Amino acid sequence: MMEQNLDELEEKSIYIMREAQMKFKRLGALWSMGKDSTTMLAIARKAFMGKVPFPVIHIDNGIDFPETYKFREELAKRWHLDLVVAKSEIKPEISGFSCCGANKTIALKKLMKEMKLDALIVSIRRDEHAIRAKERYVSPRDKNFKWNYKNQPAELWDDYSSKIDNGGHVRVHPLLDWNEIDIWNYIKRERVPMNPLYFARNGYRYRSLGCTHCTVPIKSNAKSLDDIIKELKTTNVEERAGREQDKEKEYIMQRLRSLGYM
Amino acid sequence: MDIHRIALLGDKDHGKSTFIGSMLMLTKSVSDARIGEAKRMSKELGRPFEPGFILDSFSEEREDAMTIDTTRAQLRYKGFGFEFIDVPGHEELIANMLTGASSAGTAVLMVSAKKGEGISSQTKRHLLLARMLGIDRIVVAVNKMDTVGYSKAAFEAIAGPIESFISNSSKAFGGIDAEIVPISAYKGDNLISRSKSMKWYKGMLLVEAMQAYASKRTGIAKTGLRAIVQGPIGSNQVACKVLSGKISKGSTVIALPNNSRHVVERVVKAGRSVASAAAGDAPMVAMGGAQGVQRGSVLCYEDDKPLVGSSVQSIVFLVKKPTMPVLKLATQERRCRLSISRSIDIDKGTLEKAGRFVQLGIYKAIVNTGKPIAYERFSKLRELGRFTLHEGGKFVGVGIMA
Questions:
Q1: Chain B residue with the nearest C-alpha to that of A133
Q2: Nearest chain A residue to B295, by CA
Q3: Which end of chain B is less crowded, N or C, counting CB atoms within 10 A of the terminal residue's CB?
Q4: How far is A107 from chain B (nearest CA, A)?
Q5: Is B383 near chain A, with CB under 8 Å?
Q6: pTM
Q7: C-alpha to C-alpha distance for B236 and B280, rounded to whole angstroms
Q8: What is the pLDDT of residues B31-64, one digit of tens each?
Q9: CATH class of this structure's domain A2-178+248-258
Q10: What is the pLDDT of residues A145-188, one digit of tens each?
Q11: CB B231 to CB A50 under 8 A?
């Protein structure tokens, strides 16, 4: 896994977030309390004079880990976040793909309409999955939240498409260039507060965090930031290997994203 | 680690995705899980293993064996970091190709030596567009050598015409570095190890050419401070991006095209006050009279200003003919008209008298913006010498200030 220059990545992310804040009418951000979206908030604080200027949204299906809820409350208070929690319904018969796809998307659609959001920051990275490597920094979604991946707008240099179809919105991806190891190097450098579930306990840790139903920990003894960085330098296992949702079916990410799942 | 970006260019089916897939596997830059997935998918679709599936991850891409949208993959090899940008070769996907190629400094141009494939007008168009976008180091990979018995004559039948096309186009775009390497992306010949089937070839391996080009720095700005203004942020402050030079605390800057003067009181980089910010930084700049500085302004120093004008000689690539497009240059936006004077002959690579307008053509044109715009010649500062054209919110073309 390649380590990139953190200052360059940070400056580019700052520029993209400021573009989004200036160009779109109402910007919001998804926050899962995971390492990527928390890092995004740490960068946003730097971009906007210490205060995240947009609402921070947690789509809560009620089955996240207790540590995650605790972390959410603590950080929201400490960073004075404008936290919006949207409850998503969870049906026992729906799991994996349908759970993250259908249930969470319904809640997000409703919330974005209520809040009149036309742009949403999502902290995805290109190295997470081959499908995500095909995203743009700013990527339009139609009114049904569909990603028309066959006809994405051109995105040359710093000119980010700002045309929003009627009823649609754009996804803004300020962390697209970052690799997993860059995130951890940054967390270490900037002392970004982190969810304790990422650190090993009894020989296991979470490398990628979802809810309690579809995330499983990996075998690991990485108890500190240095341990995690060291582990990532040598691993040949995919980051999302512990996510049920990805494994369920071929092309599942594509379907999830084209259906509007984050 | 410094990462060198390489765009993969060339016509559809000439083997771009296969090449990147093979390179990722040979350099062990991809997880076993991804290789396994590509293998499983190949089997499911009833075809021999296709390394290109490591990248082409949309279902349609795999089923139709074509790249729809640009994708990226990083690889590490002997102390060098590379990022491949795979782009679609199809004509109708040219906007995706431009998106991918616009961030690269080097290109690998795939030309298939297979019977019936060879140099096409799309091969030539990609080569010309790469040159226009400032890609000045090109590795021409003559691919599928395994299908022509690794014959030297088959290689030369491609290499000769490509060489003269490059030299023809140099009259319009200036000289470049080019290396022509015979390979088989599928079998792995001459990628990172010398092919036993092509002992007649003594030149650089593909990866060696990539390394040589990565070590060469080009496109270095020849200008002093140029910072573009994103917009106001807080009171008496603007958010900027520095394109060249440095913006320093205490200095007096000029905001163009208005020509107003401002004393810089504070420069804040990533939340911290600093003495100065340099190229690539996106600082917040507090300065006297910042209220008057709009999005689109360009900051510079008195003794070294960019060009300002409303009628500029340019080279444009047009996906379709616009009437009055919006020109976007850094954060500046202007409605403009184009008067085309000459066109580039796609087949010969030379500049000719403009004839009938054709889609996907490259033209020499004067851009008339009405209101003046601050810019640089592309050869002096790329970031302030290139622009995109939009009409009705849709991308219609791209250009450089000649």
A1: B71
A2: A22
A3: N
A4: 27
A5: yes
A6: 0.88
A7: 23
A8: 787 788 788 878 887 888 888 877 766 666 666 6
A9: alpha beta
A10: 777 776 777 888 888 866 777 778 999 999 999 999 999 999 99
A11: no
